Amino acid sequence: MAAQLRLRGALALVTGAGSGIGRAVSLRLAREGASVAVADVDEAGAEETLRALPAGEHRAARVDVGCARSVEELMRGLQAHFSRPPTVCVNCAGITRDEFLLRLSEAAFEAVLRVNLKGAFLVTQAVARALVESGTGEGSIIHLGSVVGKVGNLGQANYTASKAGVEALAKTAAKELARYGIRCNTVLPGFIRTPMTDKVPTKVLDKFAAMVPLGRLGEPEDVADVCAFLASDESRYITGASLEVTGGLFI
Q: pTM of the predicted model, to two decimals?
């Protein structure tokens, strides 16, 4: 999809931007005219994404989304550099620690919820506070959930729980923040080719693709296009929504 510069002049924060969907979202928003703050716990990955962005006032930063102090430092740095808070935030940071329920450790369960759910909460709270304090009167916060948060998935009790929580978080935030002009929505990807799928055998990926009515796995760009729409004024009357990007999986 050709960029339409729907975000010209906007400042966007993307977490988990060092690879996969987060990188694709960063590229898409930049092509739409936004200045993008590329944030990731992997500094090298964030810098690589930064170098891939089209010309503009962009910035890379390290953040551990599961740590309140790290998120606060990120926000202070962004506002000091750009002299304003981000009006677009896309929470892409996420990890997996797959194991069947009977063998899943407490540490693996907590690690996934720390990044995927607590991280989404901390970043959303920090961005929302900054927007409210600035009196901007607008904002779009987008969460990356997952369709498996709705239907469950073998070996992913921790991941599915975290993604179900993210969707609920976004709906509650949408209700609380609407009075400030801040919209909150969730994108629910299906099977998407990302670094998380690199370790999956080809025959397994082919089996997944055969389950999708549109006949293929999704690409990060498929998700990024939807995020760009939700970030733009074209979705100005959409909040508290969950948009599936699944190729028809589970319909």
A: 0.96
